[in-house]
Amino acid sequence: MSFVESEERRALREAVAALGAEYGPAYYVEKARSGEKTSELWAEAGRLGYLGVNVPEEYGGGGGGIGDLAAVCEELAAAGCPLLLMVVSPAICATIIARSGTAEQKKQWLPRFADGSVTMAFAITEPDAGSNSHRITTTARRDGDGWVLTGQKTFISGVDEADAVMVVGRTEDQKGTLRPSLFIVPTDAPGFTRTPIEMEIVSPEKQFVLHLDEVRLPYEALVGDEDGGLLQLFAGLNPERIMAAAMGAGIGRLALGKAVAYAKDRQVFRAPIGTHQGIAHPLAQAKIELELARLMGQKAAWLYDEGDDAGAGEAANMAKYAAAEAAVRCVDQAIQTHGGNGLTTEYGVGMLAGVVRLMRIAPVSREMILNFVAQHSLGLPKSY
Length: 384
What we know:
This protein is an alpha+beta fold. The protein has 10 helices and 9 strands.
């Protein structure tokens, strides 16, 4: 692993940053507050190939890795346009299908992931399961040549924008044991309904409760084969954490950039406030923590792209934890640096607080990451 990104990766970052600058925070916030979607940005990013950088070339993608997609996600977030569906659709769903899908599923979905013409949500969380995926009660039973899917999911992002949802359910094997399985469910399938969840976060992407009431699916809706559900699931969760870390890093950069610009310009007692260590040192500390988080994110992406799933799992969890903490610090210090202006709409800093605070909770909570590290990295007894 090199600590200097390749020329191709740096060029990709520059190009995506330029695209993000054409839209910027004002565009993103206006869309969020008006209840609209960032469809124009998504479509242009797809047309330019940025949403498909990790899709294999044979399906119209860029043939790159999750590190390339994470760079796209980070740069758009740093430009003020953190696209949550990037974490879900091209990162989780496209990765799972590329690694584990059938030949027909790859042919059907990957070209459209590559050009951004399709979006797919991802549904694992349930009201009564929380972080315990072993308590998932959404089940699929064989019925003739297909499946019947029943259950409920909650806090599922972007369902109103998605063409389909990749649903994590459980199927029964010949011994009667329930095992995880993944299904592609069209959002217009009979028996599939959604209920919006009112949130206090400024974001164009909405959250939903999903109701699956005897949803009938063809056999081909099952992703991959019946025996690979758990491995397929984790093939998508590591990219999810890597992308979440990238988004956190991008938002941290955005907030820190605003704070530094303000500290250079704002004058009190005849000097810019940035000359005072009470302002400068917390910003410097935030910068250090942010760069450390970015390094761990790049390590996790490198390990994943090298095929080291176990190493990537540890690093991805650490990266997500570090990026969330760094982003919270960057945003909080940006608000403090701005004083009262930090909570005004004009300066666009305060609205970031809810977004980064959520990153401590989702897609995996900081407590569950600490549990993972304690058990798997330190070898301590399992605590839950």
